[in-house]
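Researcher: Going back to the complex we discussed earlier. I've cleaned up the inputs and rechecked each line, so this should be the final set. Can you rerun the prediction on the complete assembly and write out the structure?
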Amino acid sequence: MHPLRPLLAIARGDAPASLVLQNVRLVNVFTGQVQPPADLALCQDRVAGLGSGYEAQQTIDLAGAYVCPGFIDAHVHIESSLCTPAQFAAAVLPRGVTTVIADPHELANVAGLEAVQWMAAAAKALPLRVVLMGPSCVPATPMATAGAALDADALRALYRNGTIHGLAEVMNYPGVIRGHDDMLAKLDALRGQPIDGHSPGATGRDLDAYTAAGVGSDHECVTPDEARDRLERGLYLLIREATNARNLDALLPVVTPANARRICFCTDDRTPGDLLHTGSIDHMVRRAIVAGLDPLDAIRMATLNPAEWFGLRDIGAIGPGRVADLLVFDDLQAPTPRMVFAKGQLVAQGGKLIEHATPESETNLSSPRGRCTVDAQNTDLAIPALGDTIRVIGHLPDQLLTESLTLTAKIENGYAVADPARDLLKIAVFERHHNTGNLGLGFIRGFGLNRGAIAGTVAHDHHNLVAIGADDISIRTAAAAIAKDGGGLAVTDGEHILARLPLPIGGLMSDQPVHAVADAYADAVHHAKALGSPLADPFMAMSFMALEVIPALKLTDLGLVDVERFEQVDLFV
Amino acid sequence: MHPLRPLLAIARGDAPASLVLQNVRLVNVFTGQVQPPADLALCQDRVAGLGSGYEAQQTIDLAGAYVCPGFIDAHVHIESSLCTPAQFAAAVLPRGVTTVIADPHELANVAGLEAVQWMAAAAKALPLRVVLMGPSCVPATPMATAGAALDADALRALYRNGTIHGLAEVMNYPGVIRGHDDMLAKLDALRGQPIDGHSPGATGRDLDAYTAAGVGSDHECVTPDEARDRLERGLYLLIREATNARNLDALLPVVTPANARRICFCTDDRTPGDLLHTGSIDHMVRRAIVAGLDPLDAIRMATLNPAEWFGLRDIGAIGPGRVADLLVFDDLQAPTPRMVFAKGQLVAQGGKLIEHATPESETNLSSPRGRCTVDAQNTDLAIPALGDTIRVIGHLPDQLLTESLTLTAKIENGYAVADPARDLLKIAVFERHHNTGNLGLGFIRGFGLNRGAIAGTVAHDHHNLVAIGADDISIRTAAAAIAKDGGGLAVTDGEHILARLPLPIGGLMSDQPVHAVADAYADAVHHAKALGSPLADPFMAMSFMALEVIPALKLTDLGLVDVERFEQVDLFV
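Model: Rerun complete. Updated structure for the full complex:
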């Protein structure tokens, strides 16, 4: 039988609905109005109609509660939750997020094409709709050793086999503006589909060129002027509120009734604890309303607008034939879903996931595993003193940008060593993907450890093993523990392992429940702080110290990189 | 060289723009605001950027004039202009219409797949962008003999080879609602693409089912309640102002700032004279503003909104990389373009087409020709009197609906004949596509001819040759004249031909300039009125008297059809 027939029969009134939600006040994002109480009839995963007098196999009386479409996160890296798609879903579904536009960029830097396909397989059977975009910049540069590469042909193949929907944030905006062959080829591979942008700080002619190339959005705005510059050019504005980059308050004043249709919400990167305790898009919607935005506009920014930008015609609204992703809530001024329906199924109630709503996929998880080939115990971390003066990475609180400092080295027995008294710690980047033995060594200020070390395989974008410590034994212990776990995070003090969070899936994601991951992560942060770090989240901070595309000084497995000059430099000046 | 490179170079400011329009006040449909005067730089057919200080190969100082995107007609049958796409373009481009979403439904009923491909070829090189939708209901019913059929496989083939963009107005809405196999197959063939609707009078559960099937718009609303019913369900509302169906005034009160984004304008069917003397979408925009609509909303309804509904990401707005379809005008309260740029080329100025802007395509026009195989002189039109009482089609002024009358026949020599004194005229429908000799005969009231006949091969939807006359000789003379012309319109009085308008392209379209067609059409109407017809446009009225899907009584080449019973009936009661 044609799959539409049961839906048509219920819509016509010729068959009982599979479920009728009675007495709902529909938040109609098409018209921008709340409709008077009526009954919403479903046919399995689809909406059949709104009316009265439906026969039903099951009814739920919602007694006048509001019902709006499920929220859409317009741009997120699931990997930042350190969880599988299923466990990420377990965190966000109770918040009312029923669709995410996901860029599997982190895992792709580890395992390439296979990673994107694994992510698709792992998400396939979930009630959360995961719309994958093709990572556009893997690897970021040739100045680090990533696990894999994705070229235009690979992206085209992923599109043709239905794995990806568009092109994810095009971070190499200088390459696009200058018309580099590889970037034009990647844009061409997905032309006609949504192409997300990433153009921090670009203005004027540069922004014109970037837009003209076919990019259609940006989520990197931090000032109202930047946001207006993008809206005027026709870029969708994705307002971001990530754990480590919070732009909502700054950008809300940009929203007007006339331009709101071109604005969406996204979370980009949120830690598991942030997702569990603060929330996701639901949090942004409520915050926006508190800040004075019309609730209908705020809800549209979380539903219809991203559906339109991404050309997803059957979600983002409630109407006949649309997917029944539905949120039930009681206060239009503070939409906190007390029931969440995803694809017509009740998946969360009272902020709690319905048990077994997000089973782990049966996909073979082995693919992106086992990628931590570091032999830490046999790695020599000593730095022969080739001079007195060294380049030091100067970490700045709450920033991804670093300073490039020039300081006097502490030298012992002909070796440059850490000097915790001056907050001068050793940083090491172990290549972990290809067993090359590549090792980058340097010094960093700002992490404040009095002793011990922290380490992890979350290190944007190449995700090699990065460690920061007061002594070589602590660093080696941490690296060895992580290598044994197949990737993860660790805190050590000498030969003692104080905390560890295994991330066996690509060295980026845990195979444990999100609550356990959040707890383990908090425990690791706690121990890092106990060792003296003043940072709110030293692991998050560390994960950007090896990212060679954000100025000024960074360390990769190939050595120090002066990002402003875009070249490798020596440790000793 | 990659085609984007010149555009990127101009956008960056590294190369002179091909054209700079200086001092424009940009009507920004993204933000809903008019921007302060600035310079708009083009790279051939694309916008490079808005700013200042551009180098340019050519400049035009617009001295503060407004510039908005070219208008989009969201639904039109080009055939109703009785002109080729090139001559239709000559009529609408000076009005500022730079894109039409066209349903080649009329020609497809004559020549099927070949007709759609011919229309695409004939439109291909024009500055007017013709986005073809696949005709969904060819033929309308089995109760008439059409020239051709288009099934789901044919539609799928047309989509796959890039000829059509989506599915055109799905007129068989009862078939969709009831889930008929052929309609579901056609919807499936274009699923994921825009599917336009046509659901006159449908409400409640029927409208739910129709929407649930995947239809996304409607242009048949005549009352505000119908319009709101459709907007609430998520159907785009295409407000229509056709020559013979004017819904703008009735529907404008529905538009609010909150729902305007889901509303577009369309013309559906306009005669050549109406296009030349009244206008097209430009006329609707001005009328809407006069009626109190915000000019920015009105312009968006003619630009960004249809671009969004049809997923046409590079038109409908002015921004870097978008196609340079631009209108220049001086009064925001009455946008009458004094310059029209289509794909970056100036195509009209002061309401006049730039000479040679719309050359006829070199496509082989012979395909849809020569389809009028009627042998009128040897056709016996006599109706033996099989009784006294006859069913008569009762034409109602300004309506497509007819009454089914029961009247006493006038009988002479054993034959039922016309009786002009009682406004009882003979109507004949000659099958013209397949040389079957099929002939439908009957009587009609309401056309008011005192003598003579009118005839034409425009007869929705099958487009057989229909004639209405006071005597058989006049009818035969008209039919013979048209057959000789390979299709067209004619007015006769006995053996005298008073007026004729040959329509050799499929019997629907002239090969002459639009002004000549408009004049010839006006002349034919003039002669029909001189013969006594009180109708404003007797040819338009006649063209719907053979349409067997609009109640109550119609005549096809297979005989009288009782549309309410959806079956053929005898002439004699």
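Model: Worth noting: The two ends of chain B are 75 Å apart (CA to CA).
Researcher: Good, that matches what I expected from the previous run.
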